[in-house]
Design brief:
214 residues, alpha/beta, Rossmann fold, 42% helix
Length: 214
């Protein structure tokens, strides 16, 4: 393999969590008396993927003239009751194991809290990861490279053979800001790859596997 260290985003990269996140967001909107006929599941998904949950909270609270803080509180209460059902993308476990068996090092870098570690453990793949950064640690959010630099320095990573794998522009930008390559995993092709110029740009696990194991 050309790459030896793999930094992984969690939501939308390792695990297919966005369908659950979107459903939780829609339930939170319904609690605010937004009509289900006004909800656009695809639009919510695209805003979350192209931007962030924070952007979705701001945009849809303004659109429906509801309190952003209450919408967020409702979402934060609903999503944890649903997230345990999340699963890795089909083929992801096989890819992680293949990289590990070939001598690759896996590190997790996510804005999600420690529920991400629980999900990794439930899927039987937590042991494949050498180290983790989750929401609980006091780093600025990606694309700030602080959390990446922390993991790089702590684990004596060679930046020349490292890559950040994620599903959003901010993941690729974080990698570049830390002096490492970026791989964009973009199911449904909703991200403008030209904005971040990833070294790898794929839409499915088969193509991602071929690129990372090369």
């Amino acid at each position: 393999m050309q790459r030896h260290t793999f930094f992984w985003d969690f939501d939308g990269t390792l695990f297919d969590t966005y369908p659950i996140m979107v459903q939780a967001f829609m339930q939170a909107l319904l609690k605010q008396r937004v009509s289900e006929y006004e909800l656009d599941e695809v639009e919510i998904y695209e805003v979350m993927r192209q931007h962030s949950l924070g952007t979705a909270l701001s945009q849809f609270s303004a659109q429906f003239s509801i309190d952003k803080g209450q919408l967020e509180r409702d979402y934060r209460a609903i999503e944890p009751t649903m997230i345990d059902a999340a699963q890795p993308f089909d083929g992801m476990v096989v890819l992680l194991q293949a990289i590990h068996d070939a001598g690759g090092l896996h590190l997790l870098l996510t804005h999600r809290d420690k529920s991400s570690l629980k999900l990794l453990e439930t899927a039987g793949i937590k042991s494949l990861f050498e180290d983790f950064v989750t929401k609980e640690q006091p780093f600025e959010r990606k694309p700030n490279p602080g959390s990446l630099n922390y993991l790089i320095e702590k684990n004596n990573v060679d930046r020349a053979t490292a890559i950040m794998v994620g599903d959003r522009t901010l993941d690729i930008d974080a990698g570049h800001n830390a002096g490492i390559a970026g791989a964009l995993f973009d199911p449904h092709r909703v991200i403008n790859a030209a904005a971040s110029h990833p070294e790898i740009d794929v839409t499915d696990i088969q193509a991602l596997s071929k690129a990372l194991l090369a």
